Amino acid sequence: MKPPEELIECYQAIVNASKAGANVTKQINEFNLLLKNLNKLSKTELTRRALEIKTETLKLAQQAQTQTLINITIAVTIAIIVVVLAVLFYVKYRYRLWLLWIRMRGGYRVYPGHGGGKRESMITSGEVWAVILAIMIVASVFAVAQAITAGRVVEPFSELGLLGPKMKIGDYPTRVLVGDKIKRYIYIGNHMGYPVWYIVYAKLGNRTTFVNSTIPANLPPIWKYQILLPHNSNTTTPVTLIMNKTGSNLKLIFELWYIDPETGKEKYYTWTHLYLNVTAPPTKLT
Hints:
Blueprint: H1 5-19, H2 25-36, H3 43-105, H4 126-149, E1 157-163, E2 175-177, E3 181-191, E4 196-205, E5 223-229, E6 233-242, E7 247-259, E8 266-279
Parallel strand pairs: 2-8
Antiparallel strand pairs: 1-3, 3-6, 4-5, 4-7, 7-8
């Protein structure tokens, strides 16, 4: 199911601005407020508020791109200046460095080597200075590359975790009664390098229900949660469900989906699950 087009465009603007280096914390918070009240807002109100967020975000993106260009220009200029100064210093002061060396070490005794050729001082050696100059150029190029690639993630990934009622891994009660509320917590972590619009679905199946890392469970969702999560952040949200049927080894599945910023469509990412034994409440004696 594709989300409203207004939200997709707003989400894409936030992602692009974040990748450009803009601080979009305020826009992410406003976007999440729209998600929270999605069913309460009219089409007109949703469009208006989404457009406001998008307009603000586009301005931030333009400012961030301009600042990035300025930073790269400064880095390149500094690199050029450093190289030019190094060359000028070598051309103008190499003989003075040689005289300084003579003053400092002029009293040393020199013994002839085995090779009959003339030996040249490291201070006035063109090869030595060429190596130094090459090192300076490489360092300057590295600095420019760092300015361009700053903030990029080498191995992006997302996290999905299921926590028990005490917000810990492992304390999962597996026996519940029909009509009782069961409380769990869902943990989501974003390490993708940009803000991600996540959607979590809860589905109830049985032991034979098939689900893996590439194929979601072919079941209707019984619970849904969505959030726009900034890069390098996480969230833990409570899940309260009521089991309305009995069954042994019922599979409570939680699937993590996300909205692809390129296509605006939902994409399945991963899942986790828990087995439950749901029984009828004891009969009251009259």
